[in-house]
């Protein structure tokens, strides 16, 4: 078994725990991004309702929030609690999302853009939460207002002291209304664009979690809102400094630090952490394989690769070589993750073609062309000895499978299971393998996002290129595993081997019965 | 795993998640003051005096200047640093010499300092000097105060009233 770093091992164990109860499709750890979007939707809808009753004046804000919390607890009160708790839940899912990408090493290389744009997005969320607490205008709000202002004052950009707005003689509605505008419109719009940029380099982006997970999360939020409704502190009073404050640590964690450090030190820490997070993808840089290459002579411009590319690296344009096809595809090398899914999706990646000569396919991976894979498959099968010969097609980014190799088991690696042309499975069976065992990332956790999904759809003949019906499904086994599932993989392979023994036995019996007849 | 057990585990996981959300949205409570403490905010927003008086250009000096820059008086842009000190009883609780802001040191300063102090009866003394040409305190404050626990007392320097405003 290869070395797996402890952080990754811990995270994979956590995922396994959630797989037990939620299954792979509903596993919240596989849906952290969509779950965050869902919490934003809850925040947005509840916020719209709260806005109806909220008084954006300094004198009326607290009273309006109290009215919502106590007099209209059955709707507005619940909405307020949902608004707060969903915002908090979003911070947890964002932090887990970041931790996941880090633990599974999915923040470097071609993924740098999503990581780097994600960091400021987190700050936008935090500042949105801060202005939200400000609007309640209770003791906590006053504390936040003064502390935030002091932080801003420490910047050399401020023309005048912001903190002094909160002296008794200075407080006025204008500044409060500005905060209202920021929270209710300015910051949400900025956040919307930040999220749009964050997912811009991905194709087929989902912002909706599986229904069951969404329903469960909402019920949980609702239950929490009913059991422990969100309430305010005492109304803001400039002549008082409350000894104890119940801070929302998801959003306000930096403020207590200001009581012990200078504002400059707090800024250095905040900007330092932000800067460090932003440069993490290059510490060190992760090498991405060579980008896919288009061979126009073999490309008929069917666009399947462009539809399957998980990172929007392939675009379709008008034919440039005068061939009779209308379109051709172009690979953007900067966006290409070198997953090979395009090669697996190309009709011309059919190993039965040009069997006596080099197989050139419409779109291919220079470091592992389909022709080489075909040769590997052929030679690996030719070397197998004994009964029940199995060829394992495995994904490089999932469980380590090279150790499975034995006298009757061969292994061939792919960048992703989505890179496997379905005809390659047929080809292996045709060339003498008794069974094909395909292993890749856990369901819902494909390293290249869509590899598992496209493979399953091709296998079920729902997506081009399909695995034809003539390919005996009883001789194909698909097993998905995390890097820590070595024993499970071995067990599954043994089981498959036994099923092939039974199948061969059954075939012999059937053929002898036919002979007797 | 059978369905009821799965649902039970799901409920457990959701409960844990919500417990986490609830707890850190309120706790641990932050104690910004001890029970017997009050808060004093000492704040100054003021520009110091110019470092010297304006002087009249002599005829010779004027002639040395380009015609478009000739003016009768030579006034400095630079302002004085502002020195200040705040004492509670005999203890100095805040002291600072704030240099003027701006590239040419011609801007004012903004101070907003929170200081935790014990509640009770105290003698507050403060002074401020905004003119390098004058030695020692120019503006002074001396006042007895009784601070209740959690009270927020603001000592604001107000040039308009030529001194400190305590409220």
How would you summarize what this structure contains?
Chain A is α/β, with parallel strands linked by helices and 517 residues long. Chain A has helices at 6-26, 32-53, 61-71, 73-103, 112-135, 139-153, 173-198, 211-227, 249-252, 263-279, 304-308, 341-345, 370-383, 422-430, 451-459, 486-516, and strands at 244-245, 293-294, 314-318, 327-331, 363-364, 390-395, 409-414, 435-440, 476-480.
Q: Please, could you describe this protein's structure?
A:
The complex is a heterodimer of chains A (517) and B (167). In chain A, the strands form three sheets. In chain A, strands 7-6-8-9 form a four-stranded parallel beta sheet, sandwiched between helices. A two-stranded antiparallel ribbon of chain A has the order 2-5. A two-stranded antiparallel ribbon of chain A has the order 3-4. Chain A contains 16 helices and nine strands. With 517 residues, chain A is an alpha/beta fold. The longest helix of chain A is centred in the first third of the chain and has 31 residues. Chain A starts with 5 loop residues before the first helix and ends with a helix. With 167 residues, chain B is an alpha+beta fold. Chain B has two domains: 30 residues; 107 residues, Immunoglobulin-like, CATH 2.60.40. In chain B, the strands form three sheets. In chain B, strands 7-2-10-11 form a four-stranded mixed beta sheet, with no helix packed on it. Classes of the chains: A alpha/beta (517), B alpha+beta (167). Chains A and B meet through helix 1, helix 4, helix 6, helix 8 and strand 1 of A and helix 1, strand 1, strand 2, strand 7 and strand 10 of B. Strand 1 of chain A pairs antiparallel with strand 1 of chain B.
């Amino acid at each position: 078994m290869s070395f797996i770093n402890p952080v990754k091992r811990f995270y994979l164990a956590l995922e396994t725990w959630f797989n037990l109860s939620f299954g792979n499709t509903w596993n919240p750890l596989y849906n952290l991004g969509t779950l965050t979007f869902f919490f934003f939707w809850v925040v947005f809808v509840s916020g719209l309702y709260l806005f109806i009753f909220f008084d954006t004046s300094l004198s009326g804000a607290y009273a309006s929030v109290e009215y919502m919390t106590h007099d209209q607890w059955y709707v507005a009160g619940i909405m307020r609690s949902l608004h707060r708790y969903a915002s908090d839940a979003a911070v947890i899912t964002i932090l887990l999302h970041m931790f996941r990408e880090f633990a599974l090493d999915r923040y470097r290389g071609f993924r740098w853009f999503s990581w780097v744009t994600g960091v400021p997005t987190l700050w936008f969320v935090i500042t949105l939460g801060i202005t939200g607490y400000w609007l309640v205008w209770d003791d906590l709000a006053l504390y936040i207002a003064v502390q935030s202002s002091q932080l801003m004052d420490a910047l050399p950009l401020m023309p005048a002291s912001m903190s002094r707005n909160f002296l008794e003689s200075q407080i006025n509605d204008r500044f409060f209304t500005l905060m209202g505008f920021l929270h209710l419109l300015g910051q949400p719009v900025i956040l919307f664009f930040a999220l749009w940029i964050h997912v811009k380099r991905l194709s087929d982006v989902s912002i909706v979690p599986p229904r069951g997970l969404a329903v469960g999360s909402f019920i949980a939020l609702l239950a929490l809102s009913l059991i422990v409704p969100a309430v305010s502190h005492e109304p803001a009073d400039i002549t008082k400094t409350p000894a104890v404050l119940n801070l929302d640590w998801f959003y306000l964690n930096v403020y207590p630090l200001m009581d012990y450090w200078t504002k400059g030190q707090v800024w250095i820490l905040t900007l330092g952490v932000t800067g460090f997070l932003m440069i993490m993808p290059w510490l060190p840089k992760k090498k991405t394989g060579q980008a896919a290459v288009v061979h126009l002579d073999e490309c008929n411009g069917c666009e399947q690769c462009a539809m399957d590319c998980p990172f929007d690296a392939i675009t379709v344009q008008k034919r440039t070589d005068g061939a009779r096809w209308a379109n051709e595809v172009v690979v953007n090398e900067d966006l290409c993750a070198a997953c090979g899914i395009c090669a697996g999706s190309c009709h011309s990646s059919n190993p039965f073609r040009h069997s006596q000569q080099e197989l050139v396919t419409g779109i291919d991976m220079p470091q592992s062309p389909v022709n080489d894979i075909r040769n590997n498959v052929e030679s690996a099968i030719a070397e197998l000895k004994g009964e029940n010969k199995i060829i394992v097609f495995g994904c490089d980014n999932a469980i380590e499978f090279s150790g499975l190799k034995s006298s009757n088991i061969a292994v061939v690696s792919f960048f992703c299971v989505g890179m496997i042309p379905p005809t390659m499975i047929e080809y292996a069976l045709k060339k003498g393998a008794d069974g094909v065992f395909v292993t890749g990332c856990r369901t819902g956790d494909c390293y290249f996002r869509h590899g598992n999904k496209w493979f399953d759809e091709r296998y079920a003949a729902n997506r081009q290129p399909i695995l034809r019906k003539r390919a005996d499904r009883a001789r194909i086994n698909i097993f998905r595993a995390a890097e820590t599932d070595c024993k499970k993989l071995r067990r599954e392979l043994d089981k498959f081997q036994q099923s092939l023994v039974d199948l061969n036995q059954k075939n012999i019996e059937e053929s002898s019965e036919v002979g007797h007849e | 795993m059978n369905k009821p057990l799965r649902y039970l585990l799901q409920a457990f996981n959701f409960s844990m998640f919500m417990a986490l959300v609830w707890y850190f949205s309120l706790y641990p409570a932050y104690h910004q003051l001890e029970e017997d403490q009050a808060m004093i905010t000492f704040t100054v927003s003021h520009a110091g005096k110019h470092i010297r008086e304006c002087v009249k250009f002599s005829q010779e000096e004027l002639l040395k200047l380009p015609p478009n820059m000739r003016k009768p008086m030579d006034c400095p842009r630079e302002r004085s640093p502002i020195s200040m000190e705040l004492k509670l009883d005999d203890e100095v609780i805040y002291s600072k010499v704030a240099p003027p802001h701006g590239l040419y040191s011609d801007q004012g300063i903004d101070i907003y300092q929170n200081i935790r102090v014990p509640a009770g009866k105290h003698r507050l003394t403060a002074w401020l000097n905004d003119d390098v040409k004058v030695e020692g305190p120019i503006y002074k404050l001396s006042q007895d105060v009784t601070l209740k626990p959690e009270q927020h007392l603001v000592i604001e320097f107000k040039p308009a009233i030529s001194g400190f405003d305590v409220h």
